Amino acid sequence: MSALTGVQHIALTVTDVDRSVPWYERVLGFAAESRTDRADGRSTVRLRGFGVTLTLVQHPHGAHAPFDEYRPGLDHLTFSVPEAASWPGRLDECGVPYSDTPDGVALRDPDGIRLVLACPAGQ
């Protein structure tokens, strides 16, 4: 068996890619790279930034219930940042509510997916 070599991309299901893509660009600084709209109504947008490829997927018949980290699946997604202290100001400018965590700040995307911006341990 060969070893894992890293993460190829992260895919998150969103209710509206046209709402989520500008949010991820404006708030977190990702850049949209490509978009695919399929005949069945599924839309996929690939974003790049900071060594991470993030794919946002909108399913045509997906549930429109808010994200709930208490259900099996994703609990949260943490992005490494060189220093968390500058993020509260940026989040305030973008009108994004956040809370402090021991390692950085926690916020939610337009669908309520919990994201954390944290410094690597020891910094």
Automatic annotation (TrEMBL):
Residues 6-123 form the VOC domain. SUPFAM superfamilies: Glyoxalase/Bleomycin resistance protein/Dihydroxybiphenyl dioxygenase. PROSITE patterns: VOC. This is Glyoxalase. It comes from Actinokineospora globicatena. The gene is yaeR.
